[in-house]
Design goal:
CATH topology: Metallo-beta-lactamase, Chain A
Order of helices and strands: HEEEHEHEHEEEEEHEHHEHEE
CATH class: Alpha Beta
Shape: globular
Number of domains: 1
Largest sheet: 7 strands, mixed
Strand order of the largest sheet: 6-5-4-3-2-1-14
CATH superfamily: Ribonuclease Z/Hydroxyacylglutathione hydrolase-like
Number of helices: 8
CATH architecture: 4-Layer Sandwich
Structural class: alpha/beta
Length: 264
């Protein structure tokens, strides 16, 4: 009896260790401009991907957009109303063909969508200060953060940042936010254990103390988005010289993949 109990104990311990060592992959793909597709554990989240056409920034043509729609997603997010991040027509098309998907955007974005899509497929958050709100859908948790648009015209559009929690990963997308010390402290980003922070390419140019701010955020990896294709090579060179651990998502630099062990 003792030997059998010992055997089963060893087996149980082995299974516990094995389960704790399951490898989880996070893939963040460039869609267009600041638009990304986040995939992990069979869950898919789109951020700022449902827009276009646009005269300046890269965007998906109709064929590529239809492919994205057919690939489906659990949640689609838009950080703000600017035409290089949000397009009511494309969001509506996506939701009509993906009845199980949820769209989260600013109140302005929802005003554009009401009457065009099912009410249960759209959600927002209303803030009067530097607050956040959690929304969950299909085992994906979204923390919606009030994160003001960058200068020089912070009032031109309400901007939300999002922390996406999926399959043990946390991804922050700030949209066109002004990433400064006050906002970082207000949302206590250092305590959020963020794996990837997606930040627009103007951030290190507008804040000369960018390294200090990155340290304050306490993120695993910074990835830059929102650049025209002609800036890809100069940005790659700048990163190599100044932030070699960072990455970027733009044409030619299509994905970031991370792996880690998580409990299942």
């Amino acid at each position: 009896m003792f030997s059998k109990m010992k055997y089963f104990t060893v087996v149980i311990l082995y299974l516990v260790i094995f389960k704790a060592a399951v490898s989880a992959e996070l893939k963040v793909e460039h869609v267009a401009n600041a638009g990304v597709k986040i995939t992990s554990g069979g869950k898919v989240v789109l951020i700022d991907a449902l827009f276009g056409p646009h005269s300046r920034f890269n965007f998906l043509d109709d064929a590529a957009f239809n492919t994205l729609v057919q690939q489906q997603a659990d949640v689609a997010l838009s950080t703000h109303m600017h035409a290089d991040h949000f397009g009511a027509k494309r969001v509506a098309q996506f939701l009509k063909q993906n009845k199980q998907s949820l769209f989260i955007g600013t109140p302005e974005a929802l005003d554009e969508l009401r009457g065009k899509v099912a009410d249960e497929q759209i959600k927002t958050a209303h803030f009067s200060g530097m607050y956040s709100k959690d929304i969950s859908h299909n085992k994906v948790k979204i923390s919606v953060l009030q994160f003001p648009h960058m200068m020089p015209d912070p009032e031109q559009a309400q901007n939300y940042a999002y922390i996406v929690e999926v399959n043990g990963w946390k991804v922050l997308h700030v949209g066109d936010a002004d990433v400064n010390a006050d906002v970082i402290a207000a949302h206590d980003l250092a305590s959020k254990e963020i794996d990837i922070a997606l930040i627009h390419d103007l951030f290190p140019h507008r804040h000369k103390n960018y390294q200090e701010l990155i340290n304050k955020m306490n993120v695993g990896k910074v990835v830059f988005v929102h650049m025209t294709d002609d800036k890809a090579i100069p940005m790659a060179q700048w990163l190599k010289a100044n932030l070699p651990e960072a990455g970027m998502l733009v044409t030619g630099y299509e994905s970031i993949v991370l792996t880690k062990n998580v409990e299942k």
